[in-house]
């Protein structure tokens, strides 16, 4: 199967390293790559010496016939490239957030429907083994009902990125659509749409939202999720959750070993077995990701959906769109909260 990659920066590197690993065991061939920064393009090309190279993604879409294209561009470029690829007859794996406006959400859904092609969104947390374990625990009811859950996703200020795009909220959607959207998406995936929600936020001196604390109400549980880009670029990336069930509390800490512990009412602490289909640590990407495992898992899953003509159930476009829409709503609520604070 012929695969193309558009965007070879931080996220793109994670994708092409996963595709290279996949190519060793499946009928995967990366036939073309696009990246406007020469040093990033050269680095990617060193992994795929036979691939054709392009400066711009739109040129790649226009000139190539592909089974799958991976779109790993800055967030504000996702929708136009995904729509162009669908219109060309390509199946599309697009990074999260799938887009930044409600208009683009609708345009993407329309293009998917017209093309009849498959689209998957890189909501990778759905493929992390610790989060899969949590969802299975919730779905099976093995620890009784979920009473409450607190999630956190913490990062230093993001000062990498093409033309500093993270710092322009029209391009990144702020911390809400870039970072917090992971937890928001997982909460929806596990619990469905919240009955109500409440948002508190802070901003950078530039006026961009840099911290959000969102609370979600469900029938018999409540969830709080915090996402922050700290004022310092030195704060290490860190993700956690604490899920309080009737008969156990699950505690995940991305910086700890073991990363997941189960606390029982009798005082016992259990360390669950977490199988992983691919273990590969790599800091080549130069962003806050070193474990390629979950990326490999989602990319392999999408490849199999296309190869076997199966529906995309893990993170289809419809889900990526719903999470983007909820994040857009929260982003507006965050701005309103900050404005109200100023006028008190």
Automatic annotation (TrEMBL):
GO terms for molecular function: nucleotide binding. Residues 132-230 form the GFO/IDH/MocA-like oxidoreductase domain. It comes from the Bacteria. PANTHER family: BILIVERDIN REDUCTASE A. This is Gfo/Idh/MocA family oxidoreductase. InterPro entries: Gfo/Idh/MocA-like_OxRdtase_N (IPR000683), Gfo/Idh/MocA_Oxidoreductases (IPR051450), GFO_IDH_MocA-like_dom (IPR055170), NAD(P)-bd_dom_sf (IPR036291). Residues 1-122 form the Gfo/Idh/MocA-like oxidoreductase N-terminal domain.
